[in-house]
Write a structure and sequence with these properties.
By secondary structure, the protein is α+β, with helices and mostly antiparallel strands. The chain is built from five helices and four strands. The strands form two sheets. It has a two-stranded parallel ribbon. It has a two-stranded antiparallel sheet with strand order 3-4. Strand 3 and strand 4 form a beta hairpin. The model has no long low-confidence stretch (mean pLDDT 93).
């Protein structure tokens, strides 16, 4: 779903959050794999200066990478589109 589609339709927002709610529990249980740890080690050894990722799961950070640029944001964070306040997904799910 594009940003414009999401922002332009309450039906699209409802559809997005319904799908996200169902899939979130599976993503929240994901753990870094050997590739994530290898990249974090390369960063710690200063063989790479950072990671640019399309992933939205936070696994690079969980493996120890610190200089991570996320092209599509993260699924474990929610940003209010009106005030720009940021919340953890766990918090949002606990109050809904």
């Amino acid at each position: 779903m594009t940003f414009d589609a999401f922002m332009g339709s309450s039906a699209a927002q409802t559809r997005y959050w319904a799908r996200s709610f169902v899939g979130w529990s599976r993503i929240a249980q994901a753990v870094p794999n050997a590739g994530h740890y290898a990249i974090a080690k390369a960063e710690a050894e200063e063989r790479v200066i950072g990671v640019i990722t399309q992933n939205v799961d936070g696994l690079h950070q969980a493996a120890g990478s610190r200089a991570v640029e996320e092209l599509h944001g993260r699924l474990d964070r929610v940003i209010c589109m009106q005030c720009r306040a940021e919340f953890s997904r766990q918090h949002i799910d606990s109050v809904l």
